[in-house]
Amino acid sequence: MNVEAEKIINIGIVGGGLLARDVLEKTYSDYRKKDVRAKIIAIADNDLTSPGVAKARELGLKVTGDYRDFFLPVFDIHLIMVLTPEREVFKEILATKPDHIRVLAYHVFDMFWRATNVEEKRLRSQTEEFETIFNAIQDTIVVITPEREIVEVNEAFLNTMGYGRDEVIGRKCHEIFQNFAEPCKRGDFVCPLEEVIKNRQTNQQILTRVDHKGRIRYIEVSMFPIWGDKGKISKFIEISRDITDRKKQEEKIRQRLERMVEERTRELKETHEKLLHQDKMASLGKLAASVVHEINNPVAGMFNFILLMKRIIEEKDLDTRTAERFVQYLGLMETETRRVSRIASNLLAFSRQSKLELKPVDINRLIEKTLLLNGNLLKINRVRVEKSLDVELPEIVGSEDQLQQVLMNLVSNAAEAMDAGEGGILTIETRSLSADSIIMISLTDTGAGIPEENLSKLFEPFFTTKKKGKGVGLGLSVAYGIVEEHGGTIKVESKPGKGTTFRVLLPVPSGDGGLHGDR
What we know:
Blueprint: H1 3-6, E1 9-14, H2 18-27, E2 38-44, H3 51-59, E3 62-64, E4 79-82, H4 87-96, E5 102-104, H5 106-136, E6 140-144, E7 150-153, H6 155-161, H7 165-168, H8 173-177, H9 192-199, E8 203-210, E9 216-227, E10 233-242, H10 244-314, H11 320-351, E11 359-361, H12 363-373, H13 375-380, E12 383-388, E13 396-398, H14 400-417, E14 424-433, E15 438-445, H15 452-455, H16 475-485, E16 489-494, E17 500-507
Parallel strand pairs: 1-2, 1-4, 2-3, 4-5, 12-14
Antiparallel strand pairs: 6-7, 6-10, 8-9, 9-10, 11-13, 14-15, 15-17, 16-17
Helix pairs in contact: 2-3, 10-11, 12-14, 14-16
């Protein structure tokens, strides 16, 4: 007999009544389990049909009708438990048993058994209460070991995920939660168990899981660690809630809102297009009326002169005085023709959509050239020019012809604003705004200024404050369009009686040769 066998206490039961059956049902176990060092191996009763004997046969134990057989070496009994209340049986066993066999009397066993049953009933009651509470909780609860094995779940979990209890207990959590054979290692998946282990604190997050039918479920998870000996985690308690219906409802609301936004956007777009069309038609009507008005006057004048000259020729009233009158008429017709040509040229420039021919432009040199071209106009209007040009002003990239047109317009406007006979001062300044990679051109006159109510309309086509015949109101509109095409802006400040300042801001080329603020 080996050392392990010597440590095992072999027990024989005398008496096969209900008590014996109860003992066998509740205590018979595999003696090889840890700390179990006793086993019931036989039962004796002269009634071989008693409940205890029947249970012993079911368990594969030895059965005999005479307890004296327990004294034989073949049974190897170490302890006899007397489970019959007959005192004569107990006395006879004591009188006849070998010395190495011990005996446990019925009344002693009965006392302990009753006490054990009371404690068992109390524990069973507590267990039932716990199970009732455990299974009544609507949130799902799962108990997981550090080896990722599920050891307990409540009814809510089984109902939510569609599993039976025997399909879950003993399985790995990743097999049940994600249908993965290996632990969750996806790049986009954060395992709550790993987070608890890493941070040593509760982890909360929303995950997707796969139920028994392979459907995706949205789960709100809280994972709690249960600490054991030496600061190690003995178990994980997961409390979670299925929020799939809430997620679906949120998704429906989101989709409905998106449809509403799309529908509203479509309606706004249609409304915007209608308003834009109406605005274009109104602008076209205004443009047509302005063009007709501006061109009609010189054309009507020329027509009258032609009729007058034709009548004089028909009357053959040609003399020196008439010839002089013809020369005067032709001069007036030339002036009016040039006016019509100027209107047409401005209209063409205003509507031009041609692509800019870009090249480096020295703004300071362009200003000097513009002042030279306008020298006569400035002299006639007695305008003195004061310049403050930044010698380190960087070159910009743009169309020199179009930018000169802008400067010509601003200089001529300033000169005409100071034609009251007393003259004035035109201050021209250039400066580099290095922080914003922008250059500034500033033109300030000492003219009559512009009323505040007119400032907002200054760049509108055909708006002019000049006297009749002096302009058609397209110059600043053309200048505004040119500056905008160059990615810049043009601003105006003015006060009646104190003059006007125009500031042109243009971008300096970026490192790749493009324009800052290019549109």
